[in-house]
């Protein structure tokens, strides 16, 4: 069985912004920390994330 996995959380390694994936709106939403709006965010989804799980 193969299923597609998608990250549901991500955070910026530069400014600390954190976001959650909103299934209803199909877009990222700020979770709690807005971070720096001028930051070119470097997203750290997870270190071990793999898009396809066997
Ligand atoms: Zn950032």
Question: How would you explain this protein's 3D organization?
Answer:
- This protein is mainly β and 54 residues long.
- The protein has one domain.
- The protein has no helices and 6 strands.
- The strands form 2 sheets. Strands 4-3-2-5 form a 4-stranded antiparallel sheet, with no helix packed on it. The chain has a two-stranded antiparallel ribbon with strand order 1-6.
- The termini are close together.
- The structure holds zinc ion (ZN).
- Zinc ion binds next to loops.
Strand content: 35-45%
Rg for CA atoms: 13 Å
Oligomerization: single chain
Measured as a percent range, the helix fraction is under 10%
Number of discrete domains: 1
Helix and strand pattern: EEEEEE
Distance between the termini: 6 Å
Q: How many separate helices? A: 0
Strand order in the largest sheet? 4-3-2-5
| Overall geometric form | globular
| Overall strand count | 6
| Uncertain regions spanning at least 5 consecutive residues | none
Strand-pairing-aware structural class: mainly beta
The major β-sheet equals: 4 strands, antiparallel
Bound molecules: zinc ion
Overall mean pLDDT: 82
Characteristics of this structure?
mainly beta, two-stranded antiparallel sheet, globular, 0% helix, 54 residues, four-stranded antiparallel sheet, binds zinc ion, 35% strand, 6 strands
SSE blueprint and pairings:
Blueprint: E1 3-4, E2 9-12, E3 18-22, E4 27-30, E5 43-44, E6 52-53
Antiparallel strand pairs: 1-6, 2-3, 2-5, 3-4
The structure holds zinc ion.
State the gist of this model:
Helices cover 0% and strands 35% of the residues. The protein has 54 residues and is an all-beta fold.
